[in-house]
Design a protein that fits this description.
By secondary structure, the chain is of the alpha/beta class. It has helices at residues 4-10, 24-31, 36-39, 94-103, 122-136, 138-141, 155-170, 192-196, 206-217, 254-266, 283-286, 291-308; strands spanning 44-52, 58-66, 73-79, 106-110, 143-153, 177-181, 242-248, 271-276. It is built from twelve helices and eight strands. It has an eight-stranded mixed sheet with strand order 1-2-4-3-5-6-7-8, with helices on both faces. Helix 4 (94-103) links the parallel strand 3 (73-79) and strand 4.
Length: 310
């Protein structure tokens, strides 16, 4: 079921059937990405800022933009992937860096606290508090607050969806669009595609998804999971910003992502959906130069340029 080029590239890639608690510290260390090599040779400015979580904790964020920014730029608020158990604000950062260079946007990439050290609403509320900081400091950042996009990949895509629901329900910030890349949306982990990718090594399997969601939910009763945490539970998808959703056809999140876009349409909203044939979870983040990855990235950039009028 995999794209032939991606299949060949995966042949030398370390795959696991299930992440465990014992593996987590090693995987976190291995997934830590220094930002300096990513920025080397790019005409991009950088500065570090700090938002404040609801409980007073510091939330580090990095502001990246063109070296010579235009006034009133659009802003992409970026949330990283890693199942809410791995990664930091520099993970998968090469994706939004392309938008700075192509579209002249400002990117604010945010840290949120990870499970199992925190659970329940904490990761998505951290992400929401970071977005509030961006809105409050729009003039200082040189951005147009009417062109604010929330975007993320995998867990970050799920958090972006949760943040968009929170912003709608809590009266802001106003979000122009949400861009959800292979988003992690449903803690129930029981779709056909989730069950398809059980019992075999992979980038993100049914078993690893179960481990991550258990870490996030902690002691939260399964019948009291907030839709902000697991956006597939949201019964009302009206009033959301225009949305882009994509996924691979050969991944755990395929069906929950397709269903989310379909439910936005059913609620009268606007969504663009892409299912990339033969793509595994996060394929274009892992192998950005593969032909399917180049196509997926180009499609997102075209959509984003249209939304922003860039």
């Amino acid at each position: 079921m995999l794209d032939p080029e991606l299949q060949e590239l995966l042949s030398d890639f370390p795959l696991v059937t299930e992440v465990t608690a014992e593996m987590l510290p090693i995987m976190r260390q291995a997934s830590a990405v220094p930002v300096e090599p990513l920025l080397a040779g790019r005409a991009i400015s950088r500065r570090e800022v700090t938002a404040t979580a609801s409980d007073g904790s510091d939330l580090p964020m990095t502001v990246l933009g063109p070296a010579e920014p235009a006034p009133g730029a659009a802003c992409i608020y970026w949330l990283h992937g890693g199942g809410m158990i791995l990664g930091d604000r520099f993970s998968q950062l090469d994706i939004p860096l392309e938008w700075i260079e192509r579209l002249g946007v400002v990117v604010v990439t945010a840290d949120y606290r990870l499970a199992p050290e925190v659970t329940g609403m904490t990761p998505v509320d951290d992400a929401y508090q970071g977005l509030l900081w961006v809105e409050k400091h729009a003039e200082e950042l040189g951005i147009d607050p009417s062109r604010l996009v929330v975007a993320g990949i995998s867990a970050g895509g799920g958090l972006a969806a949760g943040v968009a629901l929170m912003a709608r329900d809590l009266g802001g910030p106003a979000i122009a669009a949400q861009l959800l890349i292979c988003p992690m949306l449903d803690h129930r982990n029981n779709s056909t595609s989730s069950l398809q990718y059980a019992g075999q090594p992979g980038i993100w399997t049914h078993e690893t998804n179960r481990f991550a969601w258990n870490a996030v939910l902690g002691d939260l009763p399964v019948d009291r999971v907030p839709a902000y945490v697991s956006p597939a539970l949201a019964t009302d998808l009206t009033g959301l910003p225009t949305t882009y959703v994509d996924a691979g056809s050969a991944e755990v999140f395929r069906d929950e992502d397709v269903e989310y876009a379909s439910r936005i349409w059913a609620a009268g909203g606007q969504a663009e959906l892409h299912v990339w044939a033969g793509g595994f979870h996060g394929f274009d983040a892992v192998f950005p130069d593969a032909a399917l990855s180049v196509a997926a990235r180009a499609a997102r950039s075209r959509w984003l340029a249209g939304v922003l009028g860039a």
